[in-house]
């Protein structure tokens, strides 16, 4: 379908950002002027409390307008990438953003240089809103270097980024897979499709053809992983951190105890539950020799169900009703006021996301097909959008944006509440089993697989920090060891699986994956409270934005990510889902 053939009711209305090209152009010129005015304040930001307040407010206004420009241009391009005006707008917005990043590098340096003076300003109530952002900036002072060293490390960071850039640029060619009587193309996307093929020979062949290419280049991939870790270790050491892990966690105000707790809970305390899951899957699927290339098979066959957009809206309002009448009214508003771009179209971006700005509606792009996955995706993205909406409503722009650390909590809460509702209202046990199988798959991928990755990432950086000799064999042996501990006795882990860490892009994201586990555990804790009628703490959490550290946001809402209980409850949730599934068979 071409975009101009779509029913306008099911396309988004971006006029809350810019109603016309003229409005976009006017904001672009206005933002350029604002940037020049900000640059004129160099060396004078903290002359007086009044100049400080004026600069902070002016910078906030500039960033607000710049975000409107960038987001609008990108969203227009995502649905109509070939439109010349969209391309020009995106280029202009990106150019201004890059110019601003370059021109305003002096700001943080100047604020830090005058930290003592600014701390005195912050005692004044007129500066109350600036306290948390300044505290976060000043928290970095012990890890700041001289201006000369900062400039040097900036250049080093470009070198340290080379392993990731090289990894992203590698394009492997795989041997075709023989399936359904013909040779078929194998790449990263079709690989996962082949792993769901009903013929075990096809699954095995896809697995072998895929990982043999990584085996051929194992030394290259090992060098990239090691090089990336060395860059992170160098940066952490130079900035006076004890380890690369500590340096990464510092950004979120998290210590290593929390990280290690997540690894312990998933990889040790509750690993038997994962082994039980794979044993159950092997038994249900009836596969005598159950290999890791068989685990992508559906535990329960996909249920033949189809929803209209209007039915999805009705279901979601009922499923999310525990969150309050104002919440469900806002859901209806999202559908009525065209916050959502629903259907696939020629050239439209694939997948789904929630995005917007402080000034706009929290928009959603999706590619709706009417399936259960489409319904679940809507619930997920609406969770993001509602989080953004309430954060924007309760905070000024500089305090509205929430961190990635908590970004997946609200979206997962919505998915879990949707599953709750469907399990209660479905009149078919096969559909209930399908919902439970999806829940379990999501949990395994988030709360077990990610901690396995997180353990390897920790190991690799410690090897570098201890100056131990590292080769591809070091990495692949550890990969095989972790996979065998992960899958347990029910799954045969073939030797080629030792190359399984070489295709994971997250290892270049600097200790990122543990956040997935934390987000789901926190969401499960919130849903448990919501089921008991204790909704207020969660609703308060949705309003926090970036006004507190992400850990404090969770703690103040009654979910302490450092406590065992959060994870005990999460893994108990998984075990309960398995029991429910078994009871329905």
Automatic annotation (TrEMBL):
The keyword Metal-binding applies. Binds 1 zinc ion. Its EC number is 3.4.24.-. Signal peptide: none annotated. Residues 196-571 form the Peptidase M3A/M3B catalytic domain. It is an enzyme of class 3 (hydrolase). It comes from the Bacteria. Keywords: Hydrolase, Metal-binding, Metalloprotease, Protease, Zinc. Its cofactor is Zn(2+). Pfam families: Peptidase_M3, Peptidase_M3_N. GO terms for molecular function: metal ion binding; metalloendopeptidase activity. This is Oligopeptidase F. Has oligopeptidase activity and degrades a variety of small bioactive peptides. One of its GO terms (biological process) is peptide metabolic process. Residues 115-169 form the Oligopeptidase F N-terminal domain. The keyword Chaperone does not apply. Belongs to the peptidase M3B family.
């Amino acid at each position: 379908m071409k975009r101009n053939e779509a029913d306008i009711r099911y396309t988004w209305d971006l006029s809350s950002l810019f109603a016309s090209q003229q409005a976009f152009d006017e904001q672009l010129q206005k933002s350029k002027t604002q940037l020049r005015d900000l640059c004129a304040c160099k060396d004078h930001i903290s002359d007086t409390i009044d100049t400080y307040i004026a600069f902070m407010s002016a910078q906030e206004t500039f960033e607000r307008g710049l975000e409107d420009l960038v987001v609008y241009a990108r969203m227009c391009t995502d649905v109509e990438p070939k439109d010349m005006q969209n391309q020009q707008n995106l280029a202009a917005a990106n150019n201004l953003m890059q110019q601003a990043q370059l021109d305003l590098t002096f700001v943080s340096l100047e604020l830090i240089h005058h930290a003592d003076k600014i701390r005195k300003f912050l005692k004044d109530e007129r500066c109350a809103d600036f306290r948390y952002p300044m505290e976060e900036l000043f928290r970095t002072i012990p890890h700041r270097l001289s201006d000369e060293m900062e400039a040097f490390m900036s250049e080093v960071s470009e070198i340290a980024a080379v392993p990731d850039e090289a990894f992203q640029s590698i394009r492997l060619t795989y041997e075709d897979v023989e399936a359904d009587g013909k040779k078929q193309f194998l790449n990263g996307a079709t690989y996962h499709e082949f792993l769901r093929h009903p013929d075990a020979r096809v699954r095995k062949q896809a697995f072998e053809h895929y990982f043999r290419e990584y085996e051929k280049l194992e030394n290259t991939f090992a060098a990239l992983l090691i090089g990336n870790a060395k860059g992170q270790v160098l940066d952490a050491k130079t900035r006076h951190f004890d380890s690369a892990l500590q340096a990464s966690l510092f950004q979120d105000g998290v210590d290593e105890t929390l990280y290690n707790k997540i690894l312990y809970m998933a990889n040790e305390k509750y690993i038997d539950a994962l082994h039980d899951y794979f044993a159950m899957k092997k038994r249900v699927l009836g596969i005598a020799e159950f290999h890791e290339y068989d685990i992508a098979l559906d535990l329960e066959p996909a249920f033949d169900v189809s929803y209209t957009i209007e039915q999805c809206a009705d279901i979601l309002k009922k499923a999310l009703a525990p969150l309050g009448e104002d919440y469900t009214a806002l859901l209806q508003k999202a559908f009525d006021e065209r916050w959502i771009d629903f259907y696939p179209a020629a050239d439209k971006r694939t997948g789904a996301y929630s995005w917007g700005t402080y000034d706009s509606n929290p928009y959603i792009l999706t590619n709706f097909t009417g399936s259960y996955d489409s319904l679940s995706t809507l619930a997920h993205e609406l969770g993001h959008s509602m989080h953004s909406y309430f954060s924007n409503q309760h905070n000024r722009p500089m305090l509205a944006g929430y961190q990635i650390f908590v970004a997946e909590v609200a979206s997962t809460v919505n998915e879990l509440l949707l599953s709750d509702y469907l399990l209660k209202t479905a009149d078919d046990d096969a559909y209930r089993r399908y919902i439970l199988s999806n829940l379990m798959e999501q949990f395994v991928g988030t709360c077990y697989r990610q901690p396995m990755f997180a353990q390897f990432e920790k190991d690799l950086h410690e090897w570098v920090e201890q100056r131990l000799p590292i080769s591809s064999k070091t990495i692949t042996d550890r990969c095989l060891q972790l996979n065998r501990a992960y899958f347990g006795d029910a799954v045969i882990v073939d030797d080629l699986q030792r190359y399984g860490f070489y295709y994971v892009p997250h290892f270049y994201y600097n200790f990122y994956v543990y956040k997935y586990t934390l987000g789901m555990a926190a969401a499960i804790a919130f849903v448990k409270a919501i089921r008991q009628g204790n909704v207020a703490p969660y609703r308060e959490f949705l309003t926090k934005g970036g006004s507190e550290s992400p850990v404090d946001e969770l703690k103040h809402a009654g979910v302490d990510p450092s406590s065992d209980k959060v994870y005990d409850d999460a893994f108990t949730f998984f075990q309960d889902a398995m029991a429910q599934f078994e009871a329905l068979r």
